[in-house]
Amino acid sequence: MREFLLTIAFASAICYLVTPYIKTLALKAGAFIHVRSRDTHTKVTPRWGGIGMWVSMSITFLVVSHLPLVAKSFGREATGIFLAGTFIMILGALDDLYDLDSITKFAGQAVAGGILLLHGVQILWLPINGIYILPPSIGQILTILFVMVVINAINFVDGLDGLATGIVAICAMSFFGFAYLLAVVNGLNRAGAPSLITAVIIGICIGFLPHNYHPARIFMGDSGAMFLGLLLSAAAITLTGQIDVNAITNESSSKVLLPLLLPFTVLAIPLLDLVLAVIRRLRAGRSPFAADKEHLHHKLLSMGNSHRRTSAILYLWTAMFAFPTVVAAFAPIWVALIVGLAILLSSLALIRKSLVSKNVTANATTK
What we know:
Number of helices: 14
Structural class: mainly alpha
Strand order of the largest sheet: 1-2
Radius of gyration: 20 Å
Order of helices and strands: HEEHHHEEHHHHHHHHHH
Strand content: under 5%
Largest sheet: 2 strands, antiparallel
Number of strands: 4
Distance between the termini: 59 Å
């Protein structure tokens, strides 16, 4: 555990230190975003945060590869994730600069998924009537689709200062906790691609958040959103798509579904926001990728929540789905339910506080 904590700390420090230089580079290159009607920021802001994240990951990989335990995490899968992450970051950086069309971005995301497949990162089984081993072609298609969905889910939720950064950090913490507890409880290898990648994601997000939290001085942009989405999807596949479900459940209970459900519960808020946006826009006769101001964070803002409180609420909602799922894999279900209920009540308390403040302000205005 100490080596992984060191990995998190090092990635965080590098990302924090390098991001101001990336901000200057983005402004000089013209990779910034003007204020638009749907945006919540009020001034021109650079958006090449993903480049700083990639630099942090690269330097971290070089350094921690010399640690005795973590070094064992490097292999074919980690190489594939690094190459796919590099490709998708470059694609996102170009999009931040030139606003690429959707078809180009989808094609690039599929190529990134293909790079993962070439290095053995693939969904191999599903828990259907026990364990159903997928035909290679089906597993490959599902892998690419899953990668694309997660990338776009993170991209869609990236609409508020610090929101996507915090949500991804919570998701990565959940995946890391699941991977590490799986190793400790079941005696599996603690040094694997899922532990390494999620530790790096956590560090990157912690280091980037001070620059990205409201008021943001730099955005992650598509370079960051697609990069983090790729890393998260790859970590989920290596963690839950290639581990024998019997190692967790011993074929004993309804927990057999947890390895399959984990990615969807951990990523529940980004995925929910994505699905609602697509349905909403199609019903209105618009493209599913036509931007609007009706995302979950927009609705919370309209209720009177501040930027920071809205982010905090969505952080809690993410944790409400993610943490209980991890707990349920290793503890009684009632413990997981208590954890989820406690987080839910905390979020409701924040929302209630906002509503009370809004009513007080409205009453004072009418007097």
